[in-house]
């Protein structure tokens, strides 16, 4: 039986355990953070493959060395997806639709920020380059508001231990519908629309992150969204990918990607999701063993 180490949050591990177990894969949880790791002790168990590379790169490097496993979505895939600016640039170069975006690398002068927003209409969206779950994302209605947000980012980036000292300024897409499309090995395996409640909309909220209260509702992925999501995964060369799409005023753009997407309820995936995921896990293990 193939032995899989799952380095995601426990909820995803628990959702994976039984479906993959029924497909001949023994699933165990291997948390990478908020714990002590005994680096000089022999591992208490062995694994054939990991899923997916841990979000904290130092802990990920330690676990990779300790357990010597290949990963479904390895370090390079996670870094590629986490770098929002790199994703926007790569997709834009490939001719795929993305929001108009500027990257600012701190320390930057006020004149650099003014230059960055030249040609953009307010409001604009400001987001740290490598955070997830909507952390630090803000909407600035005018230049003064933007410079105020930037002041706070400057304070954070002045801390020496801050790894990524860059942020993005993007066009704001009004009344956008927000979709997450899941791709496994070049095939769409499910999708959701992230929706805000009527009360949240009445309060003027606009961010659709589930971790901030939005609801993920399973949808049938439209053909044009399927084609776009598959093209994104192929362009980034990431086999297991969540592709976030925003649809506004008759236009669809790729807002972000996630190489560590949470696995949701089975009802939000297509019937062959678990078969395709199991096949990817086996392929990853076989490639390391030279069987492919």
From TrEMBL:
Domain spans labelled ATP-grasp: 88-286
InterPro entries: ATP-grasp, ATP-grasp_RimK-type, ATP_grasp_subdomain_1
Domain of life (superkingdom): Archaea
Keywords on record: ATP-binding, Nucleotide-binding
Organism: Halopelagius longus
UniProt GO cellular component terms: cytoplasm
Lineage: Archaea, Methanobacteriati, Methanobacteriota, Stenosarchaea group, Halobacteria
Name of the protein this chain belongs to: ATP-grasp domain-containing protein
Molecular functions per Gene Ontology: ATP binding; ligase activity, forming carbon-nitrogen bonds; metal ion binding
Entry-linked PANTHER family: BETA-CITRYLGLUTAMATE SYNTHASE B-RELATED, RIBOSOMAL PROTEIN S6 MODIFICATION PROTEIN
Stored Pfam families: RimK
């Amino acid at each position: 039986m193939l032995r899989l180490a799952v380095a995601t949050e426990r909820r995803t591990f628990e959702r994976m355990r039984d479906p993959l177990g029924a497909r001949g894969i023994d699933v165990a949880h291997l948390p990478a953070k908020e714990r002590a790791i005994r680096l000089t002790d022999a591992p208490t168990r062995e694994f054939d493959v990991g899923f997916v590379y841990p979000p904290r790169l130092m802990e990920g490097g330690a676990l990779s060395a300790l357990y010597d496993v290949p990963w479904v979505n390895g370090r390079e895939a996670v870094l590629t997806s986490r770098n929002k600016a790199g994703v926007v640039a790569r997709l834009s170069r490939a001719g795929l639709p993305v929001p108009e975006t500027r990257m600012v690398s701190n320390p930057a002068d006020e004149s650099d920020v003014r230059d960055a927003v030249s040609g953009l209409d307010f409001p604009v969206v400001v987001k740290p380059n490598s955070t997830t779950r909507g952390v630090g994302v803000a909407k600035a209605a005018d230049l003064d508001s933007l410079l105020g947000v930037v002041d706070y980012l400057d304070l954070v980036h002045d801390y020496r231990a801050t790894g990524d000292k860059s942020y993005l300024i993007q066009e704001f897409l009004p009344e956008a519908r927000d979709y997450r499309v899941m791709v496994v090995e070049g095939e769409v395996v499910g999708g959701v629309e992230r929706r805000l409640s009527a009360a949240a909309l009445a309060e003027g909220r606009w961010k659709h992150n589930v971790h901030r209260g939005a609801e993920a509702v399973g949808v049938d992925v439209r053909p044009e969204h399927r084609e776009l999501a598959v093209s994104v995964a192929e362009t980034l060369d990431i086999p297991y990918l969540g592709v976030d799409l925003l649809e506004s005023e008759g236009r669809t753009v790729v807002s972000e990607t996630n190489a560590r997407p949470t696995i949701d309820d089975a009802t939000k995936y297509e019937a062959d999701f678990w078969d395709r995921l199991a096949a990817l896990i086996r392929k990853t293990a076989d490639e390391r063993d030279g069987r492919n």
